[in-house]
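Q: Structure tokens for this one, please.
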Amino acid sequence: MNSDAPALSADLEAAWSEHVRANREQAERLRESQSSDFYAPVSSLFVADPRRTDEPVLDVLQSIARPDAAWLDIGAGAGRYALPLALRVREVIAVEPSAGMRRALRTGTEEHGLTNVRVVPGSWPEALEDLGQLPAADVALIAHVGYDIERIGPFLDAMEAAARERCVAVMTDHSPGAVADPFWPIVHGEERSPLPALPDLLALLDARGRRAEVVRVERSTRSFDSVDALAAFLRRQLFIAEGGEKDLRFRAAMPGMIAFRDGAWTLAAGPVGSVGVVTWAVPRR
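A: Here is the predicted structure, written as tokens:
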């Protein structure tokens, strides 16, 4: 690491925090809807068949999953990656703060007869203390987690402390919630303040002296069975309540911004950018 790297890393962490705060403060200022567990009403959207064979990101993860390894999935959600990884590795430790997501995760492990998934309630990095002796796993994974983490430096430090061998991050060029960005000027009268994403992570890892490898895959389009389901998803991203003045503007704009493709409803404009699967070795202790 060169002599300027610590200062650059600190600057990048500060910029990351600033973007996260601006995004959060904008949401709080404009929010019409509130939930104590943001993901509880939509946890079913994150449930996926652990034996699926049609997801490039999962293919990349499975290609580096050794049968004798233990994986830590930070922000595991309903088990989109924890469950298929559990079919291939010795153990998966799934850290998840949302009670709704944990219920969906436990249901998935029972339905698919998986006994090697350990669920740890809590947020990261606080949950590090609940993992027992460190390092707790061979590989630490975050999948679409980190965009809204204000103190990203300590978050990554804890991630590396939990892993013996390597860390893996799955992130998009633009945060997942950015799919609703075209609606923000229409609904709220202002552009959405962006969150950090994959390019910011790569710059930060480089400044921290990590040699990251990136495999990029095509970003899939999220689709829904009905217009109402798509509308409900977008309302959550826009923080608006059904039936209000902003919802009227939203519904008036929807017909020109959605499409019916391959038997499902989705946004007419496809997702921007790609998904990167980033891996880096844990520094020697």
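A few notes: The chain has one domain: 5-222+271-281. Strands lie at 70-74, 91-96, 117-121, 137-143, 163-172, 213-218, 258-261, 264-267, 274-281.
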